[in-house]
Amino acid sequence: MTLKTRYKAVLDYFRTAMPIAETELHYDTPFSLLVAVMLSAQCTDKRVNLVTPSLLDAFPTPEAMAEATPEEVLPYIKSVSYPNSKAAHLVGMARMLVERFGCQVPETLDELVQLPGVGRKTANVMQAVVWHKPAMAVDTHVFRVSHRLGLVPASASTPYAVEQALTRHIPEEDIPTAHHWLILHGRYVCTARNPQCATCGLNAFCSTAAKNAKAKSRQS
Q1: What's the mean per-residue pLDDT of the chain?
Q2: CATH code assigned at 201
Q3: Is the dihedral of CA 67, 72, 73, 76 positive or negative?
Q4: Could you give the number of structural domains in the chain?
Q5: How far apart are CA 142 and CA 181, in angstroms?
Q6: DSSP 8-state class, residue 83
Q7: Choice among 121, 133, 211, 216 that is catalytic
Q8: Does residue 121 contact residue 139 with C-beta atoms inside 8 Å?
Q9: Are residues 80 and 108 in the same domain?
Q10: pLDDT tens digits, residue range 72-81?
Q11: Domain match, 36 and 124 both
Q12: What is the pTM (predicted TM-score) of this model?
């Protein structure tokens, strides 16, 4: 199977099997999504969705959060991973939004990554979800699934290398949704420890499944 054929088969499958694919983080403004995505680093969306309502009730805008201290934010997020550093980043992010961006979440990658606690992955999530830009955020799920399916070479050993490979082969109009397709597939089917290969609809196109089948045939 050529790489072009594999991409087409995988994307066609997702379009049919998962016609609606979107973030599982709860939000109603770009600011609330940015807060949620920052909190989601090495933390489940389920946990973040439990935390953000009270946090954003207390600090609903960049102005309100900018006036707080990390110590005031910390009690609201103490159940997420790395709460101390995230509290500091949230306050720093809010203050920069107020001081430099007119209290608005910026739309470009270069501007987003200037915000404390915002790296390339978070910036790409914001661009894809809020503004539907062809930005591919590579988290652990996207990284794992892309390699297992054979969408990216083994030499793509960094998130940025995976991002480049995926955006090179996925049509621009599909990239924002493809980000969610890969994440959700990794979260619920192609899991890290116990992938559901027996019931996976992508078996016919998966390079890992093909390798496993060859290995079993040699053993029998």
Answers
A1: 95
A2: 1.10.1670.10
A3: negative
A4: 2
A5: 9
A6: H
A7: 121
A8: yes
A9: yes
A10: 999 999 999 9
A11: yes
A12: 0.91
Note the pLDDT of residue 207. Answer: 85
- How far is Cα 172 from Cα 182, in angstroms, rounded to an integer? 15
**145 lies in the same domain as 79:** no
* 78 and 166 share one domain: no
Structure tokens at 180: 């969610």
Q: Give CA–CA dist 144/186, Å, rounded.
A: 7
Residues spanned by the domain of 146: 3-21+140-219
Instruction: Please say if 139 is a catalytic residue.
Output: yes
Per annotation, catalytic residue among 139, 174, 214, 216: 139
The structure tokens listed for 9 are 């088969």
Residue 110: band (very low, low, confident or very high) from pLDDT cuts 50, 70, 90: very high
Question: Which tens digits make up the pLDDT trace of 55-94?
Answer: 999 999 999 999 999 999 999 999 999 999 999 999 999 9
> Is pLDDT of 214 > 80?
no
Of residues 219, 124, 193, the one with CA closest to residue 163: 124
Please report, for the domain that includes residue 65, its CATH number: 1.10.340.30
Whether 34 and 80 share a structural domain: yes
Amino acid residing at 129 = V
